[in-house]
Design brief:
- The structure holds two protein chains of two kinds.
- Chain A contains six helices and eight strands.
- Chain A is of the alpha+beta class.
- Chain A folds into two domains: 117 residues; 108 residues, Immunoglobulin-like.
- By secondary structure, chain B is mainly α.
- Chain B folds into two domains: 100 residues, Orthogonal Bundle (Rna Polymerase Sigma Factor, Chain: A), CATH 1.10.1740; 79 residues, Arc Repressor Mutant, subunit A.
- In chain B, 48% of the residues are buried.
- Classes of the chains: A alpha+beta, B mainly alpha.
- Chains A and B meet through helix 1, helix 3, helix 4 and helix 5 of A and helix 3, helix 4, helix 5, helix 6 and helix 7 of B.
- Chain A: GO terms for molecular function: sigma factor antagonist activity.
């Protein structure tokens, strides 16, 4: 870590205002999910700036937008239902666990936040304690990426060998939590280098779960499902 | 969904989305969509990308509706303020992701015109903040370069480097203005 101990309130402000680089943003989002003190700082920052959102001049929406949204959510109905039942339970479970542990009492939560922020900062790897690992292979059988998925679906992507990304494309990582269900995006990244992705609302990854990377248009697949060329795919195993 | 009973009540509408009520999502779009497109347009500076961002945001609102209320809202917030803050956080996040991944495709032929448009957008945001607003009061207390840097970051989605470039300042100065400006706002609005 090159920067000094981050001031958590400043870190929260920078997340909200949009000044963090992608790696710091992933750390901040993880911290927001896992630490109530930091989540409250983020909420407070959002509230401070929200008046500025209301200053934007209103603009008419294009007439077809509602239908496109409807098409997208109907196409993803199974995923939406899965997401609707899953995260509430996970969050409640996490809160129960948190409130019962002495470590997370009010008196120590700030210290814990600082410790977590430092621990995350010291080493990017420490942000992902892999529950599963998958090696993605190209059509030609060459390894193209290693995926390390944590229980909370924070995912470390390590690219293997040389990857050429077409000029107008980004990479998108997908997984299938339900083998019979649709692929779900774990995140978009534009450079073929070590990247941490995080996503909420998915069940914890398990073994024999499909992962794949596709090339998609900037911002990711417009349909919410993989549409581009597949760079590589593979199934997860449990590390020992 | 009874439109009269729920129109404008965003937190109830989001909860209805979690129960797969598409008419609730439509009511949110009717109520907030035009403002959301305005926010996206200021950041992305391109109509097509801004529309994509708003559209994606509504899909995300639908997907994440069940999470609303479990992790959001602080003591003292009204459900309405929490709901609005939740929606705009998703929108801003989507806009910034699109902005960073699409690389800013602005016309560079006339940098002066571009700077003028940026300045106009910032001015418009600043002057539209209600005089009774705490944010207006506290931003007003900042030195101009700090205020402008904060507004450029939030309203236009500019990075440290872009802010330094626009203000013809060294990167270190731009970072310091932002850091001190944000700290002063925290202090002033606490």
């Amino acid at each position: 870590m090159t920067s000094p101990l981050p001031n958590l309130a400043e870190f929260a402000d920078e997340l909200v205002i949009g000044l963090l680089d992608p790696a710091d943003q992933a750390r901040a989002e993880r911290l927001e999910r896992e630490d109530q003190t930091f989540a409250q700082l983020v909420n407070a920052a959002r509230k401070r700036f929200s008046a500025l959102d209301q200053t934007a001049p209103q603009q008419d929406l294009p007439s077809g937008m509602w239908q496109r949204v409807l098409d997208a959510i109907e196409q993803e109905a199974p995923e939406a239902q899965a997401a609707a039942s899953e995260p509430v339970d996970l969050d409640k479970a996490r809160q129960r666990r948190s409130s019962s542990a002495l470590f997370w009492t009010t008196a120590t939560s700030l210290a814990a936040s600082l410790f977590l922020a430092v621990a995350l900062g010291w080493n990017l790897m420490s942000t992902v304690e892999p529950k599963v690992v998958a090696i993605l292979l190209s059509d030609a059988g060459q390894p193209v990426a290693m995926i390390e998925g944590a229980a909370d679906n924070t995912t470390l992507v390590t690219m293997l060998g040389e990857t050429t990304v077409p000029g107008d494309r980004v990479m998108q990582l997908w997984t299938k939590p339900d083998p019979a269900g649709p692929p779900v995006s774990l995140g978009v990244f534009d450079k073929p280098r070590k990247t941490v992705l995080s996503v909420s609302g998915l069940p914890s990854p398990s073994t024999d779960q499909l992962y794949e990377i596709t090339f998609e248009q900037p911002g990711g697949s417009p349909t919410g499902l993989p549409t581009g060329t597949i760079l590589g795919k593979g199934f997860s195993s449990q590390p020992h | 969904m009874d439109k009269d009973a729920t129109a404008g009540n965003l937190s109830i509408l989001i909860e209805a989305c979690a129960r797969s009520d598409t008419s609730a999502l439509r009511l949110i779009m009717d109520a907030e969509g035009p403002r959301m497109l305005g926010v996206a347009r200021r950041i992305l500076n391109r109509g097509d990308l801004a529309e994509d961002a708003v559209q994606d945001t509504f899909v995300q609102i639908w997907r994440k509706a069940a999470q609303f209320g479990t992790a959001h809202g602080t003591i003292g917030d009204t459900p309405e303020a929490s709901a609005r803050s939740w929606i705009y956080a998703i929108l801003r996040n989507r806009c910034l992701t699109l902005l960073r991944s699409a690389a800013r495709e602005v016309a560079t032929e006339d940098d002066r015109l571009e700077k003028q448009l940026d300045a106009d957008t910032i001015d418009q945001a600043w002057t539209s903040l209600g005089h009774e607003s705490d944010l207006r009061h506290c931003l007003g207390a900042l030195q101009e370069e700090k205020r402008t840097a904060v507004l450029m970051a939030y309203v236009l989605g500019y990075s440290h480097g872009e802010i330094a470039g626009r203000l013809n300042a060294p990167l270190g100065s731009a970072k310091a203005w932002l850091r001190r400006g944000l700290a002063a706002l925290r202090e002033c609005m606490s």
